[in-house]
Amino acid sequence: MQLFYSPDISLENETFSFDKEESKHIVRVLRKKTGDILHVSDGKGTLFTTQIVLESDKKCVTKIVSHQVEPLKNHHLHIAVAPTKMNERYEWFLEKATEMGIDQITPIICDHSERKIIKMERFEKIIQSAMKQSLQNYLPKLNEPIALKDFLNQNHQGELYIAHCEDDKEKTLLKNAIKPQKKYLLLVGPEGDFSTKEINLALEKGFIPVSLGHTRLRTETAAVVGVHSFVFSNQ
Fold first, then answer.
1. Beta strands 146-147; 141-142: pairing state
2. Is the Cβ–Cβ distance between 183 and 231 less than 8 Å?
3. Taking the model in full, what pTM does it have?
């Protein structure tokens, strides 16, 4: 099955039209014809089965044949991770995290962050593409970048964790700390790690210090390992 995505598709209408860019892809690249079936997700859990009624490369029109709603998962995973110096490494994280089923991502700007300018539009496209590729019906929420100190002052609920590299603080292996079927938030720092001040502030806010293993990981690798740990613990 090939999955398309549009936040605009709705049961309120009998037909749905793709935008010009997607219409061109459907008609010219995929060579879809009138009568062909297309599967479209709204990114909010509903999968629509549609049938092409007008095969125009400027405005491909389909009629909604049926739909099904995917139940919410029994857990919610939010990763707040510092942008990496090299954009493609963060983009790799976004892709893999989406494929594994992350729910929410927040880029955090830390004391040691080397990159503070985020290309949100490109990040959104990467997440959408990964959602479609992995045939998921929920699009992860990508939040606007925020300074870590401001993020920590928000009212976060659920199981709170911070993964850092300082050796003088006692840490628990993340896989041993995870309680299934909960709401989770994991902080992952930049290449230079969190500053001691940031770590102490997170601990004051109730975050549990955790280790992701016995080797030092790149930021994007640590974030992916974190996502996998939570997903695996809730299988």
1. unpaired
2. no
3. 0.92
